[in-house]
């Protein structure tokens, strides 16, 4: 029995298109096309929850699902994600103005977000068939899907898990795990960027509450899939590691609000995955050198060495966004630019909000290229003797695959790339 492979994807708004490019290239590996979904366990937050849910819904035809996912990202328009019309923006701006100027006297708290993300809910309902997730679990194409969201009432991180019967469950002081049937509402809640998109109301076994972006409190993004049983991890990040080694430019001007928001988004979406991978590698070294004794850990939690392969952008996505800012609708562009001194100071924020075809297509191409550059390494990692699909994964026999193929027509891959 080989080691179970888990897929981890964190958030990043429009940067999620990069993940779609990486997955598209993985879907073209011949062994993936013949053997099916290589990731029995999928975990995601924010944009990673969108991509992870799409894979879970279409993993019975994994290669086709990755192709459709990239196609959806490449045709995405800002109006598919948030309202861009003048009336909507004027109404939203007026609410903010009244809250900030007269809220103390008249009663505030009416402003919910900078942008109205209602269109995203309709877009996902049109293109994503969440009922297929349970079908794929039942037919053993998937063991579990886990997506994260933040409860704004309690401040706790909630992990919603849809998996095979008997999958692990756990709770910690600031983390709650719930078995759930993943819906578009869960996905929208996980992808609701704080302040930018409005919170989403969810009914849970603990009662109704409003939820926001799953990356907000998820400081250990690898933890969910590890606890679900993943013994090897494939992670797709959206931070350019090369940027970390560049010299910092000096700037004596006070940072604009856009710059501050950009830093906050980077901390929330980018830093946690990189930090968690570093932490995992450090623990592996301590275990291998014997500086951590397994026998001394048996009384609490048993630790085991875990391997991780991470694919990250070879180019700074902030710089890519800077070249595409003019593609944004004029009103949104004007609104975001008003938060900064110039286009450069808004690039970080824009890199998360640029749901435009030219930007997402460039990110898809970049993800595809970065995965292609390491495709031999990726394929060896996915299909080495230690990463063969483990428990409750895709049926291994040709007879089982033929049976499932007959029961699931190719037009029903959980995703639809058609546009209205």
What sequence of helices (H) and strands (E) makes up the elements? EHHEHHHHHHEEEHEEHEHHEHHHHHH
How far apart lie the N and C ends?
46 Å
Q: Largest beta sheet, briefly?
A: 9 strands, mixed
Q: Let me know the average pLDDT.
A: 83
Structural class: alpha/beta
The number of helical runs is: 18
* Unreliable runs: 386-411
Helix content: 40-55%
Radius of gyration: 21 Å
Shape descriptor reads globular
Extended strand count: 9
As a percent range, the share of strand residues is: 5-15%
Please, could you describe this protein's structure?
46% of the residues lie in helices and 12% in strands. The protein has helices at residues 16-27, 30-35, 47-58, 62-74, 78-81, 86-106, 118-127, 131-138, 184-190, 223-227, 257-289, 294-297, 317-322, 330-337, 347-353, 357-373, 375-383, 398-407, and strands at residues 5-9, 41-45, 144-151, 157-163, 175-179, 200-204, 207-212, 232-236, 307-311. Strands 1, 2, 3, 4, 5, 6, 7, 8 and 9 form a 9-stranded mixed β-sheet that branches. Helix 1 (16-27) runs antiparallel to helix 4 (62-74), helix 1 (16-27) packs across helix 16 (357-373) and helix 11 packs across helix 15. It is globular. The relative contact order is 0.20.
Brief description of this entry?
The chain is α/β, with parallel strands linked by helices and 420 residues long. 46% of the residues lie in helices and 12% in strands. Strands 1, 2, 3, 4, 5, 6, 7, 8 and 9 form a 9-stranded mixed beta sheet that branches.
